[in-house]
């Protein structure tokens, strides 16, 4: 009887910790999803002639609840994220790498890697000239 109570407690504690960890991960993902970095990046992809040509329209997150991988730390001036996106013709992964020096953000990578392996560098897309990510 004593061993079964202890086992039940440990199983209950394990389940509680798993629920807490999942909730924390979802909360952090929601914070990244709501950031200006993700919002402006999706805007870029939706308005990029090259991305629209490759993915088709409408362009949206691949899933109803997208997972944003990586880090957004505006205080330290570091952004390194990726997420899945799709259109009517195909899908791919968006990569964003940026760092801040002083008050200026420097985009190291702003790219769309299609599932067929093609990489579209959105920093060189002339349909987006004059636009910049709002960090």
From TrEMBL:
Tell me, what is an example of a GO biological process annotation in this record?
A: mitochondrial respiratory chain complex IV assembly
UniProt-listed Pfam families: Coa1
Mind telling me which GO cellular component terms the entry cites?
A: mitochondrial inner membrane
Q: What protein is this chain from?
A: Cytochrome oxidase assembly protein 1
Where does this protein come from, organism-wise? Dimargaris verticillata
């Amino acid at each position: 009887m004593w061993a079964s109570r202890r086992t039940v407690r440990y199983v209950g504690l394990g389940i509680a910790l798993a629920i807490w960890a999942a909730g924390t991960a979802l909360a952090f993902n929601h914070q990244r999803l709501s950031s200006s970095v993700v919002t402006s990046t999706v805007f870029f992809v939706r308005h990029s002639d090259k991305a629209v040509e490759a993915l088709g329209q409408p362009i949206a997150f691949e899933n109803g609840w997208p997972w944003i991988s990586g880090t957004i730390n505006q205080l330290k001036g570091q952004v390194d994220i990726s997420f899945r996106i799709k259109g009517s013709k195909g899908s791919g992964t968006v990569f964003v790498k940026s760092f801040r020096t002083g008050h200026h953000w420097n985009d190291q990578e702003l790219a769309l890697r299609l599932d067929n392996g093609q990489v579209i560098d959105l920093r060189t897309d002339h349909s987006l000239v004059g636009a910049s990510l709002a960090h």
